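Continuing the series of single-chain predictions for the mutant panel. This is the parent chain; the variants come on the following pages.
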Amino acid sequence: MTAVHNPILPGCYPDPTICRVGAEYYLVTSTFEYFPGLPVFRSRDLVHWEQIRHALDRAGQLDMQGIASSGGLYAPTLRHHDGRFWLVCTLVDQRDQARGGNFVLTATDPAGPWSDPVWLDADGIDPSLFFDDDGRVWLHGTRLAREPEWHDQTEVWLRELDPATMRLTGPEHVLWRGAVLGAVWAEGPHLYRVDGTYYLLAAEGGTEFHHAVSVARSDSVTGPYVGNKANPVLTHRHLGRDVDVVGVGHADLVEAPDGSWWAVLLAMRPYGGYHYNLGRETFLVPVTWEDGWPVFAPGQGRVPTVVEVPDGVRAGNEGGGPASAWPPAGSVPPGDLRWTGLRGPADFAEPRGEGWLLRMRPENLTDAATPAFLGVRQQHQAVTVRMVLRFDPAGPDEQAGLAVRQSERDHVLLVVTGAPDGFGRRVLAVHRQAGEATVLGERSLSGGDDPVTLAVQAHGQDYALLVAVGDEQLTELAVADGRTLDSVAAGGFLGVWLGLIATSNGTPSDSVVTVERFEYQPYV
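Parent structure:
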């Protein structure tokens, strides 16, 4: 047995999808407006996970320019069939409903390269694929009900897909409208065939507090489907908001080599009140079968804090042993797959040792564009991020430093910038909340050639902003209220990113920022 602590992927890794191929498990999650998108993880034992690629990682694969925060890439499904990996997903542009849609990527190796997207003539969101034993391929997904009985009622539809042409064919079938009368957003559907019976797994209740997992079954892939009398088969909504894990849902199933079954799903961990700055994270839950139905977290009925994973789930000969700490602490150098930017390739950044050269851009974090920003997910409630930079600003419009990002309208900056009179440098701490910016603190800087160290120390919902010049000790400049930075307060679907920003705020600039080092250090 190996004990693993939930979540298995901490930080904003929502909508997990999983499959096993021979000796290895593979997992992908949503990434919304961040680029590269759709991280691909690999494991041999469901415990130790390694990111091996992003499926969308090159210019020209997908255009996300102009897509606002919490739009973009929603709810992928990963499957493998006949030597080929299939990844279906939705691109959502909340400002332009005509833009985007459902698409499929393929690869013979999950470590890439992945194909360009092939767009599918399919409604709605959350597409999934099912490869039946007779060779037929079925695409299914969620859309708003054509004839709704209540607001936000959705329906799960099914239609055959021709894998040679990537075109839908044959009649459409509506399979499900939710297990509970009045349920909203029956979504995230996945089909399986177990012992000759077809099972439809779906989430419902919305991907927040009332999220839940439900299941139905049928003798035919096209239905009719009959719901489990125990539905919802997993939820935490009956536990109230004062609980360690909330919003449980959006599950996907996988069978281990020993015949055991497991589910990955999303949930959130509130702290400092009903706020979850780490976003929707990926959890692991054991599943058994009783009377022809899956039972999630048997004997507990809730997501366990610690999961005992037997050696029999190990898909290969390697791996095992004590669960390793992930993500690694310390320096986050270029090449670390945790780095992501916004909406497009980071062609403004050049690796330099353990750090970067950042070419300043006019765009800033309020723009639905690709500013000179690189960040990593906040994955711990208590963490210090620290950067050392060299930067000589040309004026008060030029800023470079650290960002705590939730969205265009909600973020915190700790930046080196020019003095208003044009002489010297200063550090500004700025909190943008619901689009309105407030200066939290300001300090003039001495030593024009000395490097500046900036740090954000998150301890619960207090985000202390610290600064030092040269060999000074870090001193606190201001404290930002983290309760304004999660999706409960700001809306949307994202957790917090911590990263680097270099912007001239709308003015042309040829300035370059040297980032000598960036560190991510969790602490107790």
